[in-house]
Amino acid sequence: MKKEVQHLVDKGVMLPLMEEFYTIQGEGFHKGTAAYFIRVGGCDVGCHWCDVKESWNAELHPPTAIEAIVENASKYSKTIVITGGEPLTWDMGPLTEMLKTRGMQTHIETSGAYKLTGTWDWICLSPKKMKLPTEEVYKAANELKVIVFNNDDFRFAEEQAAKVGKDCILYLQPEWSKREKMSPLIVDYVMQNPQWKVSLQTHKYLNIP
């Protein structure tokens, strides 16, 4: 990447854009609602079960001016979901400021592993064992979504729930490849611990992005 382009990426006025698309939010609190997704490349958290590993290497995705990203988003929806990769790898301030000036609702899906930047109407925190969230993002999270891959993830979920605010909504979501095994365990767990809710990847059942 050219030095001048790298400087703009570091400032957050260009971002490594992997893809952008209009769809139905499939997970968590806003499931079933229309939203425009902006997927930003770059992630070193390294979840072995990640279903978008092609997002990890930021260099594979073209640095794109945020003006172009915002212009595309404005054609489709008032609700914008920034995801990745790990979007907080980059400074989200310039992008969210520009989205807000256009009257859009800004949502983020993040592991919380990096400094919280940007202005957000909704923060979905999905923490990972390999690289835990910052204290700042725990306090700001609107929903906590823990991916359940094995039995130890229930213990991890309770550890994470102890760190978020009292109004944060708690979700357990089966990892897609383990859904048949883990979904019944999640159902039982939520029935015994009703402060939690079940989240499913409903977009995959609907066969949409």
UniProtKB/TrEMBL annotation:
<feature type="binding site">
    <location>
        <position position="43"/>
    </location>
    <ligand>
        <name>[4Fe-4S] cluster</name>
    </ligand>
</feature>
<keyword id="KW-0408">Iron</keyword>
<feature type="binding site">
    <location>
        <position position="83"/>
    </location>
    <ligand>
        <name>substrate</name>
    </ligand>
</feature>
<feature type="binding site">
    <location>
        <position position="50"/>
    </location>
    <ligand>
        <name>[4Fe-4S] cluster</name>
    </ligand>
</feature>
<protein>
    <recommendedName>
        <fullName>7-carboxy-7-deazaguanine synthase</fullName>
        <ecNumber>4.3.99.3</ecNumber>
    </recommendedName>
</protein>
<dbReference type="Pfam" id="PF04055">
    <property type="entry name" value="Radical_SAM"/>
</dbReference>
<dbReference type="InterPro" id="IPR007197">
    <property type="entry name" value="rSAM"/>
</dbReference>
<feature type="binding site">
    <location>
        <begin position="126"/>
        <end position="128"/>
    </location>
    <ligand>
        <name>S-adenosyl-L-methionine</name>
    </ligand>
</feature>
<feature type="binding site">
    <location>
        <begin position="24"/>
        <end position="26"/>
    </location>
    <ligand>
        <name>substrate</name>
    </ligand>
</feature>
<dbReference type="GO" id="GO:1904047">
    <property type="term" value="F:S-adenosyl-L-methionine binding"/>
</dbReference>
<dbReference type="GO" id="GO:0008616">
    <property type="term" value="P:tRNA queuosine(34) biosynthetic process"/>
</dbReference>
<keyword id="KW-0460">Magnesium</keyword>
<dbReference type="InterPro" id="IPR024924">
    <property type="entry name" value="7-CO-7-deazaguanine_synth-like"/>
</dbReference>
<comment type="function">
    <text>Catalyzes the complex heterocyclic radical-mediated conversion of 6-carboxy-5,6,7,8-tetrahydropterin (CPH4) to 7-carboxy-7-deazaguanine (CDG), a step common to the biosynthetic pathways of all 7-deazapurine-containing compounds.</text>
</comment>
<keyword id="KW-0456">Lyase</keyword>
<keyword id="KW-0411">Iron-sulfur</keyword>
<feature type="binding site">
    <location>
        <position position="209"/>
    </location>
    <ligand>
        <name>substrate</name>
    </ligand>
</feature>
<dbReference type="GO" id="GO:0000287">
    <property type="term" value="F:magnesium ion binding"/>
</dbReference>
<keyword id="KW-0671">Queuosine biosynthesis</keyword>
<comment type="pathway">
    <text>Purine metabolism; 7-cyano-7-deazaguanine biosynthesis.</text>
</comment>
<dbReference type="InterPro" id="IPR013785">
    <property type="entry name" value="Aldolase_TIM"/>
</dbReference>
<comment type="subunit">
    <text>Homodimer.</text>
</comment>
<comment type="similarity">
    <text>Belongs to the radical SAM superfamily. 7-carboxy-7-deazaguanine synthase family.</text>
</comment>
<feature type="binding site">
    <location>
        <position position="85"/>
    </location>
    <ligand>
        <name>S-adenosyl-L-methionine</name>
    </ligand>
</feature>
<feature type="domain" description="Radical SAM core">
    <location>
        <begin position="30"/>
        <end position="209"/>
    </location>
</feature>
<dbReference type="GO" id="GO:0051539">
    <property type="term" value="F:4 iron, 4 sulfur cluster binding"/>
</dbReference>
<feature type="binding site">
    <location>
        <position position="39"/>
    </location>
    <ligand>
        <name>substrate</name>
    </ligand>
</feature>
<feature type="binding site">
    <location>
        <position position="47"/>
    </location>
    <ligand>
        <name>[4Fe-4S] cluster</name>
    </ligand>
</feature>
<keyword id="KW-0004">4Fe-4S</keyword>
<keyword id="KW-0479">Metal-binding</keyword>
<dbReference type="GO" id="GO:0016840">
    <property type="term" value="F:carbon-nitrogen lyase activity"/>
</dbReference>
<keyword id="KW-0949">S-adenosyl-L-methionine</keyword>
<feature type="binding site">
    <location>
        <begin position="49"/>
        <end position="51"/>
    </location>
    <ligand>
        <name>S-adenosyl-L-methionine</name>
    </ligand>
</feature>
<dbReference type="InterPro" id="IPR058240">
    <property type="entry name" value="rSAM_sf"/>
</dbReference>
